[in-house]
Design goal:
This is BRCT domain-containing protein. InterPro entries: BRCT_dom, BRCT_dom_sf. The protein is of the alpha/beta class. It is 29% helix and 18% strand. It has three helices and six strands. Strand 2 and strand 3 form a beta hairpin. The longest helix is centred in the last third of the chain and has 13 residues.
């Protein structure tokens, strides 16, 4: 996670427990990453949590506004953003690699 700019979306279930954003941020910094305050073209890792509330921008794919933003950004800029879930974040905490999820084409 060294030098990655990380953004969290939704509610993260890490190692079987819902982890507060504050704790997620602390772990990110301990792993050498930086926390993005909001969506930005500079984000390199998007940690996708469960979508509990709020509007879905793309109901068919169940994508929030942030997911749609990053899917469009990756297509437009032709660059990769690592998209991981809470389980993947848990893998990073234990020193393993996280599986990167592909965003579905519209």
């Amino acid at each position: 996670m060294r030098d990655e700019l990380v953004l969290f979306t939704g509610r993260a279930l890490v190692c079987g427990e819902h982890m507060e954003r504050r704790v997620l941020r602390e772990h990110t910094v301990k792993l050498g990453g930086r926390v993005a305050p909001d969506r930005s073209a500079s984000v390199t890792v998007l940690v996708v949590g469960e979508i509990w509330t709020g509007p879905l921008r793309d109901g068919q794919r169940r994508y929030s506004q942030k997911l749609v933003y990053f899917e469009e950004l990756m297509r437009r800029q032709r660059r990769h953003v690592h998209v991981i879930d809470g389980s993947g974040f848990g893998e990073l905490l234990t020193g393993r690699h996280a599986r990167c999820h592909d965003l579905l084409a519209p």
